[in-house]
Amino acid sequence: MLAAKTDLLRLIAVPALGWAAWRDVQTRRLPNRLWYPLLAVGLLTLVWDSLGHLPVAGVEDRLFLVRVGISLLVVVPLAYGLWWIGGFGGADAKALMTLAILFPTYPVFYLASGAYPPVATDVGVFSMTILTNAVLVGLAYPVYLGVRNGLQGDRSSVMFLGRRTDVAALPTEHGRLFETTEGFTRHGLDIDALRMYLRWRGTSLEALRAAPAAHRDPSSVGATNDPTDGAVGAGGESAADASGVPDTDTDTDPDADHDDPWAAERFLDEIEGSAYGTTPETLREGLTVVTTRDAVWLSPGVPFIVPLFLGLCIALTYGDVLFGLLGALGVV
How far apart are CA 182 and CA 171, in angstroms? Predict the structure, then answer.
């Protein structure tokens, strides 16, 4: 037997999502135009398959409609809700919504070795299988981090959540600081916001580290620049210090009490948006950390679209991992 034409069309999601995962890791930016052709294929195949189940005449037809309903009316709102509360990034939510439209029911592919995917749930909603697979892949990542950090001798209370990174590498890194001057935090400075700040004041992290007390003085900030959106490679993070701040702190009191240290409030007042939820206090604390330490703990910053892509690949070749595990344990 051959796979249905609609199922073959749906396979376009594999290279598209693979590229999206790679690009999101590299830049944390995905163009909205990526989703339009995938949505078009999803709607086309959904209508095509639906016509084969109309009029509703039997159990299979009703099951198809129920599964489509669950995918569209449960998985899609779930993706939106997770984005709304901050649990998902925008691209992650769009990817899951797109997959819910593309894969409402289980596809079937016939190879010489048999039919794939071999492990299907009783519910039969393929987008939910992709999601549960992705969650399991995501849960495995902290284990990898802990083992990796342990082998490298980087042991701490956050060794399963982050990685120790040289401060000099931060201009091209992604993620969020796990550190403050007093300990660890899950709400540290976002590295994209750090790049925005550096571009805004026309300086570099190297310059800040060379003269932190001078840069801490808000009067040292003159004309400011476009902060961009903090993406790597948008310019500014490695530029020479253009702020007119002296190269040394010889004449600057490091303990001076400024009204707006680092000009943090001015930065957030002048830019559009919130710089990824950054507050003046978070920015000041983060700047103090990155100008006084050589290495910091950084969240891995892996977008959920990566485990989502892996979850899709596993779903197409194996099926539902959770259902398979529960079956092996005799639970289902």
Answer: 23
All structural domains of the chain? 5-142+303-328 (1.20.120.1220), 163-298 (no CATH)
How far apart CA 143 and CA 149 sit, in angstroms, is 10
**Could you give the residue ranges of the DSSP H alpha helices within the chain?**
5-10, 13-27, 35-51, 59-70, 76-84, 90-102, 126-151, 191-201, 205-210, 212-216, 264-270, 280-292, 305-317, 321-328
Furthest CA-CA distance within the chain: 86
State the angle between helix axes of 76-84 and 90-102 in degrees (0 to 180), rounded to the nearest 10. 180
**CA distances for 141 relative to 152, 171, 293, angstroms:** 17, 24, 27
In the numeric block, which tokens belong to residue 164? 């120790």
Tens of pLDDT, residue by residue, the chain (332 residues) = 556 889 999 999 999 999 999 998 888 889 999 999 999 999 999 999 999 898 988 999 999 999 999 999 999 999 999 988 877 888 999 999 999 999 999 999 988 888 999 999 999 999 999 999 999 999 998 898 899 999 999 888 888 988 999 999 999 998 899 999 988 888 899 999 999 999 999 999 999 999 999 999 999 999 999 999 888 876 544 444 444 454 455 445 555 678 899 999 999 999 987 888 899 999 999 999 999 999 999 987 778 999 999 999 999 999 999 999 998 988 87
Give the separation between CA 243 and CA 201, rounded to whole angstroms: 7
Q: How many CA atoms lie within 13 A of 234 on its CB side?
A: 20
Beta strands 163-166 and 114-116: pairing type?
unpaired
